[in-house]
Amino acid sequence: xxxxxxxxxxxxxxxxxxxxxxxxxxxxxxxxxxxxxxxxxxxxxxxxxxxxxxxxxxxxxxxxxxxxxxxxxxxxxxxxxxxxxxxxxxxxxxxxxxxxxxxxxxxxxxxxxxxxxxxxxxxxxxxxxxxxxxxxxxxxxxxxxxxxxxxxxxxxxxxxxxxxxxxxxxxxxxxxxxxxxxxxxxxxxxxxxxxxxxxxx
Length: 201
What we know:
With about 200 residues, the chain is an alpha+beta fold. Helix content is about 35%, strand content about 35%.
């Protein structure tokens, strides 16, 4: 009888512990289910974001190519490299190559702390496009080569744009010295650009 009485007092404790264990398991399962749901939603959002980014890049690429071919564009540079190999990250609003019809403007303003000849921490040169040629490689890359001449510039300018993007690089070869400059940035239609043009030489 004593044994039976002891078992009868232990049994409720075992059942209570079992119930708590089941409750914890249920809560853990709920947490896991919620985590799996959150991850599924995150992956779905990420896929949508990737798709939207791809569509945005595609549209920007098409617009940039059309603007380049129509000679109606601005290459807004975010970094500039000089002939000694030093690269400077710059403000794309004040560092650019713009082309509108047969007019080209090259502006390099690497400093935000000095006024410079153009009033924007650098130099702005304005010239006419004497000749230009557009070619496309087998890989889809477009190259625009143009000769620009003016009071402050006499140079050969080459712009390269990769397929599927509006990212581009440019090389400026001065005709009378070796101060070659490289720029890298994005090409946008002229009317969509927000660059600030300083005073030309």
